[in-house]
């Protein structure tokens, strides 16, 4: 019997260990997070679970869209759960005991009470990570950024990983040739003649987060190789709350802003207003060498500008829960921008011996006004008890832009050349309507998701250009009939899509197909008419993701995207603001299709994440600006389907959070591009583009926070390269008076103004360009937060076993 005892002991130990392991796999804690007033579900609340005596959580997750959460694979023991969400008091549930026999704990409805005068705890503990890296999307949480306070959407985008913003304020995803900007899931470039005007006055304090989508799902338009989706705050806090602030810079720029929201039992009112004044100064140099069989000559150009811009942004939103299953949201947005511009140019003509033969001076004066109004209506209906949802949305927009510029050209020598005076008056109108219907429904016990939808987009653009030249003999302006013209553009796009999402055992398969029927026509007042043959485009989309071992994720995607030529590229009106470098559109452009594939891997820990990604794409009929130089030395720039382009891109994205007060994130990309053109052999070239973003933020003692960002980009183009440019920003914020007041000081490019260098080359020319602007600046911001809510206490359920 004694000999058998070790065997019995071993078998018993194995059984106990196996049962314990089985229990560890079965231990669960679940529940639903709701608002104390009204009982509405709280989606995306942060829920963490930790051992009773531990300070650091074991796992941290977010509630789903219905407010549910669930922790699995917990070992027997005593746990505590913490629930936090911006605008609500933190909720703690202690003494949650999991045993081998009682391993499934349902906490029921956990009611969050709205935050009162104690804002301090919410700000520090409920803060989301600044950057979240996912398999298909990168999310930049604007509210977690020190540098974002008191700034605009353009300023925020400069610090988003994988995003570059050029000197004109145009934002693109690194490695993508065409990027579209959406607001709350709807295209924004249709709403204004210049998207930069909208982003320059859109206050960052009204923005919740920015999503970087390198492979947009079928629900989104097939246009553009990537999407930047700006998600606005909805203001879902109980009671009346908001903030007021002012931002002042040493360069003379100012920004005042305010946000307010009121939430009743079943409705929400929100609004924001901002006014921005900005001063832009800079200079540039351009050196062009022109090669011809019998001679070589040079054009050197020196430019400077001093621009003043001011604009306002006003938003109003109304959200109404008609019934528990019906919701209506109405929102409006109004932008107004104006500008005063002063610039000067010097044109040096040099012969093949580099001896100057002519010097021309040009003084430019201009002013402009832009007004834009957008109305959105969205209706959501829960169609059944299993989670089916129907969404109907309508967007109406109207935009008007007026721009006036005068060009005064004189010659320093030779003195026998006559001066000239020209003025351009450009009036642009842009109107559109967008309709969308989307339906999604969980199927197979809510394991999978089925979606389908319809959309219609109509857009009309009118461009009226009046060019007049001054007659020094009669002392009057005469209309230039060759340059004066009116351009009328209409576009209709009818879309339909269907998608299916399969999920099981850590696997997720998303597949979808979108079809778009496009009808475009445009004509000129001179009589030319252009009717593009209507065309049907199909956009398949497939994404496979596998999450395993609780911390690893592998993903692969494939999609087809389109880059449609827009009115600015199609409009053949000639722009001779620079008579040595004229430009015009090409009405014969065709759409460009891109096939793109992404492979990603993610590793996630409690304090870090690491997500490398490889992307491959091939484009046919790439649309890019193309330049030629005539024998008289005048260059003509237009758009063309230059040929094909193949790209292989490698991204490294990482996030490290050693403590709950320190966060670091970094993104690096390198892109190998290969151009092939039947139009011009000089376009046949290979090259590398590369860029990097590094960010660091830290919560310091005495309610102080610090943040810094460093960005670098170096990109190739069809005819050359935009050489490396570096930008940096640093900021510190101090909160006081129970976090109701905060002051921030920040600096941009403190080590010197941003320089932009580029080179372009054609069959008979090579051009080098250098420019700099007043990006170096120091800003001081003051912000006040207010809230008026009746005092309530959070409802905490009794611990399990003590009910």
Percent helix, as a range, is: under 10%
Shape: globular
Whole-number mean pLDDT: 82
CATH homologous superfamily of the largest domain - what is it? Answer: TonB-dependent receptor, beta-barrel domain
Low-confidence stretches are 1-24, 116-127, 789-803
| Oligomeric organization of the protein chains | single chain
Strand content: over 45%
- Give the CATH class of the largest domain: Mainly Beta
Q: What is the fold-level CATH name, i.e. the topology of the largest domain? A: Maltoporin, Chain A
Q: At CATH's second level, what is the architecture of the largest domain?
A: Beta Barrel
Indicate how many domains the architecture comprises.
Answer: 2
Structural class: mainly beta
Number of helices: 5
Compute the number of strand runs. 43
Largest sheet: 25 strands, antiparallel
Radius of gyration: 30 Å
Distance between the termini: 48 Å
Protein name: TonB-dependent receptor
Pfam families: CarboxypepD_reg, OMP_b-brl_3
InterPro entries: Beta-barrel_TonB_sf, Carb-bd-like_fold, OMP_b-brl_3, Plug_dom_sf
Keywords: Cell outer membrane, Membrane, Receptor, Signal
Topology:
Elements: H1 5-26, E1 27-35, E2 46-51, E3 59-62, E4 68-74, E5 77-84, E6 91-98, E7 104-112, H2 120-125, E8 131-133, E9 137-141, H3 153-157, E10 163-165, E11 171-173, E12 179-183, E13 186-187, H4 195-201, E14 207-213, E15 226-232, E16 239-249, E17 254-263, E18 267-292, E19 295-323, E20 326-350, E21 356-382, E22 389-413, E23 420-443, E24 448-471, E25 476-479, E26 485-504, E27 507-524, E28 529-548, E29 552-563, H5 567-570, E30 581-583, E31 592-604, E32 608-620, E33 623-629, E34 635-641, E35 644-659, E36 662-676, E37 685-700, E38 704-717, E39 720-736, E40 741-748, E41 755-761, E42 765-773, E43 777-788
Parallel strand pairs: 1-7, 12-15, 30-34
Antiparallel strand pairs: 1-4, 2-3, 2-5, 5-6, 8-9, 9-14, 10-11, 12-13, 14-15, 16-17, 16-43, 17-18, 18-19, 18-42, 19-20, 20-21, 21-22, 22-23, 23-24, 24-25, 24-26, 26-27, 27-28, 28-29, 29-31, 31-32, 32-35, 33-34, 35-36, 36-37, 37-38, 38-39, 39-40, 39-41, 40-43, 41-42
């Amino acid at each position: 019997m004694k000999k058998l005892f070790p065997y019995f002991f071993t078998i018993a130990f194995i059984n106990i260990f196996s049962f314990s392991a089985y229990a560890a796999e079965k231990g669960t804690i679940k529940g639903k997070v709701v608002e104390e007033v009204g009982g509405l579900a709280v989606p995306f609340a942060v829920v963490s679970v930790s051992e009773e005596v531990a300070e650091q959580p074991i796992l941290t997750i977010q509630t789903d869209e219905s407010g549910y959460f669930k922790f699995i694979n917990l070992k027997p023991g005593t746990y505590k759960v913490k629930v936090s969400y911006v605008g609500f008091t933190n909720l703690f549930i202690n003494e949650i005991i999991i045993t081998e026999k009682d391993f499934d704990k349902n906490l029921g409805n956990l009611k969050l009470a709205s935050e009162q005068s104690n804002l301090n705890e919410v700000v520090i503990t409920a803060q989301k990570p600044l950057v979240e890296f996912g398999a298909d999307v990168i999310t930049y949480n604007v509210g977690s950024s020190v540098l974002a306070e008191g700034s605009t959407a353009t300023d925020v985008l400069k610090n988003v990983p994988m995003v570059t913003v050029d000197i004109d304020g145009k934002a693109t995803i690194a490695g993508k040739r065409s990027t579209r900007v959406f607001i709350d899931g709807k295209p924004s470039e249709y709403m204004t003649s210049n998207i930069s005007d909208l982003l320059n006055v859109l206050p960052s304090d009204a923005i919740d987060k920015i999503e970087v989508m390198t492979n947009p799902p079928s629900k989104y338009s097939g246009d553009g190789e990537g999407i930047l989706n700006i998600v606005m705050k909805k203001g879902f806090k109980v009671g009346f709350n908001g903030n007021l602030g002012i931002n002042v810079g040493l360069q003379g720029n100012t920004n005042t802003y305010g946000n307010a929201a009121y939430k009743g039992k079943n409705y929400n009112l929100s609004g924001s207003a901002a006014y921005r004044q900005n001063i832009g100064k800079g200079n540039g140099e351009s050196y062009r060498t022109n090669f011809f069989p019998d001679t070589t000559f040079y054009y050197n150009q020196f430019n400077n500008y001093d621009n003043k811009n001011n604009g306002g942004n006003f938003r109003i939103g109304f959200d109404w829960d008609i019934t528990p299953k019906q919701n209506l949201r109405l929102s409006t947005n109004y932008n107004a921008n104006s500008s005063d511009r002063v610039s000067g140019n010097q044109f040096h003509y040099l012969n093949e011996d580099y001896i100057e033969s002519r010097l021309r001076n040009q003084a430019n004066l201009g002013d402009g006004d832009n007004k834009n109004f957008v109305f959105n209506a969205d209706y959501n209906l829960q169609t059944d008890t299993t989670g089916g949802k129907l969404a109907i949305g309508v967007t109406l927009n109207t935009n008007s832009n007026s721009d006036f510029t005068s060009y005064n050209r004189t010659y320093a020598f030779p003195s026998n050349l006559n001066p000239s005076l020209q003025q351009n008056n450009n009036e642009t109108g842009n109107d559109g309507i967008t309709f969308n219907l989307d339906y999604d429904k969980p199927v197979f016990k809510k394991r999978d998701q089925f979606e389908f939808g319809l959309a219609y987009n109509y857009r009309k653009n009118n461009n009226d250009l009046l060019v007049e030249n001054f007659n020094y003999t009669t002392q009057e302006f005469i209309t230039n009939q060759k340059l004066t013209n009116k351009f009328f553009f209409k576009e209709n796009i009818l879309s339909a899509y269907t998608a299916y999402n399969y999920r099981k055992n850590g696997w997720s398969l998303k597949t979808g197909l979108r079809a778009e029927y496009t009808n475009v026509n445009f004509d000129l007042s001179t009589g030319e008419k252009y009717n593009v043959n209507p065309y049907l485009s199909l956009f398949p989309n497939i994404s496979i993701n596998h999450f395993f071992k609780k911390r690893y994720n592998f993903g692969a995607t494939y999609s087809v995207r389109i880059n449609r030529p827009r009115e600015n590229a199609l409009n053949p009106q000639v722009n001779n603001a620079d008579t040595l470098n004229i430009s015009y559109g090409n009405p014969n452009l065709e759409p460009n299709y891109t096939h793109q594939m992404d492979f990603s891997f993610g590793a996630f820990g409690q304090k870090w994440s690491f997500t490398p990604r490889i992307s491959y794409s091939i484009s046919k009929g790439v649309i890019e600006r193309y330049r030629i130089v005539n024998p008289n030395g005048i260059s003509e720039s237009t758009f063309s389907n230059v040929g094909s382009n193949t790209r292989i891109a490698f991204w490294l994205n990482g996030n490290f959070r050693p403590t709950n007060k320190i966060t670091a994130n970094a993104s690096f990309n390198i892109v190998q591009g290969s151009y092939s053109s039947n139009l011009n052999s000089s376009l046949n070239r290979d090259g590398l583009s590369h860029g990097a973003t590094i960010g660091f933020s830290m919560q310091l003692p005495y309610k102080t926070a610090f943040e810094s960002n460093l960005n670098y980009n170096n990109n190739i183009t069809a005819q050359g390269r935009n050489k490396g440019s570096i930008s940096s920003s640093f900021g510190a914020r101090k909160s006081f008076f129970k976090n109701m007041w905060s002051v921030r000081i920040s600096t941009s490019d403190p080590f010197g103004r941003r320089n932009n260098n580029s080179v372009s080359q054609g069959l008979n020319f090579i051009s080098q360009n250098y420019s700099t602007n007043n990006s170096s600046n120091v800003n001081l911001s003051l912000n006040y937060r207010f809230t008026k809510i009746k005092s309530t206490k959070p409802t905490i359920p009794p611990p399990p076993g003590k009910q």
